[in-house]
């Protein structure tokens, strides 16, 4: 892969406890080619010249939090879509590993397929968002083709990287047992799945669409009930177990 020592990072958040194992710094890489209907960060779709930073400067900042990472924590690269800056992402993750900092990649799995192997070679954990299982629905939800993210997942399996599955549940789209059964069939054969999380859709990003002059695509869709989402998650995890035990 060609080198890129400069990339675009909108912000860093320290002491993250939910985006990967242990205590982590979260690096938000700006830019995303997807247009998920439920996106609550449309302000992250585009890069801004003010986001520009070198690998060295970024890793210097990330190193400051190293005492908090402990044996499980480290840095999570999220977005936007971090795979949108593959060369920079690879260099930054490689530099973290060289400093003894564990790397986690929070991704939709959409990017340049020819860069996946290099990136996965320096990834310790993946937070993998499933946004749809079938071409038509995936395209409706993301405006992107399904095959790319499937290739990412196949390569992640080949590299044996531990995965946390994450699925945003939007009322009227995903909050049904048929979808849970389809997800279970998809997830059960996968290796190295350490966690399965359903994330309730919320409407906290709606105002950001006004700011960027775009209509909110899910206008009128209510936030997902958290208890119902938890019930669906329990059902899904049990269903995955049942399928695995029966095979
Ligand atoms: S991949 Fe993430 S940042 Fe990109 S559009 Fe979808 S939800 Fe938004």
The unique ligands bound to this protein are:
iron/sulfur cluster
How would you characterize the largest beta sheet?
8 strands, mixed
Helix content: 25-40%
Rg is 18 Å
| Contiguous helical run count | 9
Query: Which structural category fits the helices and strands?
Result: alpha/beta
Low-confidence stretches: none
Report the end-to-end length measured between terminal Cα atoms. Answer: 40 Å
Task: Sketch the topology as an H/E string, one letter per element.
Answer: EEEHHEHEHEHHEHEHH
Mean pLDDT: 97
Q: How many strands? A: 8
Strand residue percentage: 15-25%
Q: Indicate the overall shape.
A: globular
Task: Walk across the major sheet and give the strand order.
Answer: 3-1-2-4-5-6-7-8
Characterise this structure.
The longest helix is centred in the C-terminal third of the chain and has 21 residues, at 226-246. The model has no long low-confidence stretch (mean pLDDT 97). The protein has nine helices and eight strands. With 247 residues, it is α/β, with parallel strands linked by helices. An eight-stranded mixed β-sheet has the order 3-1-2-4-5-6-7-8. Iron/sulfur cluster binds at residues 32, 34-36, 39, 41, 44, 79-81, 108.
């Amino acid at each position: 892969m060609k080198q890129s020592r400069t990339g675009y990072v909108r912000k860093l958040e320290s002491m993250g406890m939910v985006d990967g194992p242990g205590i982590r710094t979260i690096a938000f890489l700006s830019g995303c080619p997807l247009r998920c209907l439920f996106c609550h960060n449309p302000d992250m779709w585009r890069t801004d010249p003010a986001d520009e930073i070198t690998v060295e400067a970024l890793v210097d900042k990330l190193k400051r939090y190293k005492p908090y990472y402990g044996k499980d924590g480290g840095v999570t690269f999220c977005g936007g879509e971090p795979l949108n800056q593959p060369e920079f992402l690879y260099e930054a993750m490689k530099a973290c590993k060289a400093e003894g900092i564990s790397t986690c990649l929070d991704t939709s799995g959409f990017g340049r397929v020819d860069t996946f192997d290099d990136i996965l070679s320096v990834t310790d954990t993946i937070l993998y968002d499933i946004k749809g299982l079938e071409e038509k629905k995936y395209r409706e939800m993301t405006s992107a083709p399904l095959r790319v993210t499937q290739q990412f997942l196949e390569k992640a399996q080949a590299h044996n990287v531990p995965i946390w599955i994450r699925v945003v549940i939007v009322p009227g789209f995903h909050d049904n047992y048929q979808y849970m059964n389809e997800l279970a069939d998809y997830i059960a054969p996968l290796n190295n799945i350490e966690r399965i999380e359903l994330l309730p859709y919320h409407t906290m990003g709606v105002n950001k669409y006004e700011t960027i002059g775009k209509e909110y695509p899910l206008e009128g869709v209510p936030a997902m009930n958290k208890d119902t989402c938890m019930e669906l998650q329990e059902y899904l995890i049990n269903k995955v177990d049942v399928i695995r035990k029966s095979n």
